Amino acid sequence: MPHGTQPDSILVQLNALAGGLFLLSTFGMVATRQVQGCLRFFIVQSIFLASSMLLLGLQPLSWHLIAVAVINLINKPIIIPWLLKKTVSEEVYARREIAQALNIPISLLVALALTIGAYYLAAPLLKVGAGLPALVNLPIGLATLLLGAYTLTVRREAVPQLLGLLSMENGAFFASIAIAPELHLFVELVIAFDVLIAVFVIGVLTRAIHEHIGTTDVGSLAALKEESSR
Amino acid sequence: MIARIAFNFIQVVVVMLSAPLLAGTVNRLKEIVQSKRGPSIVQPYRDIWKLFHKDEFVSDQSSWVFRFTPFVVFVTPIFVTLLIPVLTSYPLFFAFMGDMLGGGFVLALGGFFATLAAVDTGNPYGPMGASRTRLVGFLAEPVFMIVFFTVSFVAGSTIPYIVQQRWVNPIANFFEPTHVLVMLAFFMLILAEGGRIPVDNPSGHFELAMIDESKGLEYSGPAAALMKWGGQMKFFVLICIFLNVLVTPWGLARGISIRELGLAIPLVLLKVLVFALTLVAVESSLAKLRLFRISEFLGAAFIISVSAMIAWVFAV
Q1: Among A78, B86, B136, B285, whose CB has the most other CB atoms within 10 angstroms?
Q2: Number of inter-chain CB pairs under 8 A, A vs B
Q3: Is there a contact between B27 and B203 (Cβ–Cβ < 8 Å)?
Q4: Which residues in chain B are closer than 8 Å to A9, comparing Cβ atoms?
């Protein structure tokens, strides 16, 4: 039977569940049509990331991972949405339909293919002899990385693109906590602040674009150069 | 042997009698959420009783399919009830006749005939509702298949009585990501198949917006009662499969004794009531989707079911 993760511990099982829901919220970010919904899925995703960190930190007790979980729990579901609301004008959130290069059902199928690809990519890496948590976290983290990149490519709106970027970061984090749990706390702190600055800069930039052009539809920025043709 | 046959019939009777009660309870709860009093929970029984005492009109333009369909719609859920665990955790007398896939096909047969009957009459709304039901059906079918394959692959069997033990034995299996994702996908499937709110509005009276309801518009009298009752039983059976096989296989009778069976009936009804509360919460907090957004809803269900499968297959 293809079942290496024998349910010897409920923590391993719960971590797998957090991984599954983490992946699901990433799918939600790909599938949703609204900026607000995209943001909500990002918050849910970050909460599952933090819970996976917490569960991995409990099993061989590691205060370091728990501290990272707490940093993430404060940083991503609370500060980043607050910062985004502050910097980007309200009108962006009121918009219900995000422009997209591909429609949603096709997007979902592409997302599915990317996920299967991520599992295939991770399979030879896992054969090297990774621990139990890596079996769950590495492929799912990789899949989220790819899905975040896909969101970044296919969306034509600044804020969901930023959220795609942040979801890539979440995916990388999700994989790394299983492979390299001994990463220095200082590095994690630096990343946390780095992300905040990225959000701040992109938020301010988006606001400036919005004030100048009256839209944050990045897809239509290409047409600006040849305004006479419109 | 005799006891197993008798229990099987008790099971059918329980499903037949509780299905309208479920419909009435859900309606009443929804009305309460909307700050209205709503009809009594026994109203569906009164409706069925009244319809059985009314005259029946059948268009002379319709064929035998139209007259035959109410019986098929009424009998198929009863047939499935013989196969699945409703009250007992061991197979009853008729359970050898089919597995979960067989049950799914028998339920689909009822839907197939209802669609044919809707096209059979000259009513303009019937074919429209029928084609919409097919649209939902086409999208729901792959989800059903993937959920079914995942479940039987994990449990190593297609027999519901074996599958139901897999998830709770030991209890840590309950939290497997595959299990949770399959539950979610199947719940979305029930919403689509039962014509509940994100897909279809069961209490809508506007024919142009109907999906499921408009198929039965041409029926009157006893035939309408059978269609109505059959639809309610189909929904009840789907919920029983969901609860007893996938989510909570507790509270079922374990031994062959009338006492355990009698205890199982209120416990199963309690589980169904909890499901009804969830359903009301979902229906009251969501809006009906536009017709072409249904593909996104069921596409999401498909993605969830496939990720459940991936999570199992690749768990090395």
Answers
A1: B86
A2: 84
A3: yes
A4: 172
B218: β partners: none
| C-beta atoms of A2 and B312 within 8 A | yes
A123 at B interface, C-beta within 8 A: yes
Give chain B positions within 8 Å (CB) of A133: none
* Test the B interface: residue of A119, A135, A150 with most B CBs within 10 Å: A119
> Which are the contacts of B298, defined by CB distance < 8 A and separation ≥ 6?
B136, B139, B140, B143, B188, B192
Long-range Cβ pairs for the range B6-10 (8 Å, 24+): B7/B87, B7/B88, B7/B92, B7/B93, B7/B256, B7/B261, B8/B82, B8/B92, B8/B93, B8/B94, B8/B95, B10/B87, B10/B261
Query: A152 — contact with chain B (CB < 8 Å)?
Result: no
Query: Which tens digit of pLDDT belongs to each residue from B120-155?
Result: 887 888 888 899 999 998 999 999 999 999 999 998
pTM for this model (two decimals): 0.89
The token pair that represents A28 in the structure block: 């939600």
pLDDT tens-digit map of A173-217: 898 888 877 777 778 788 888 888 888 888 888 888 777 777 777
Dihedral, CA atoms, B300, B282, B75, B212, nearest 10 degrees? -70
Structure tokens at B61: 């333009």
Residue-range domain boundaries for chain A: 10-217
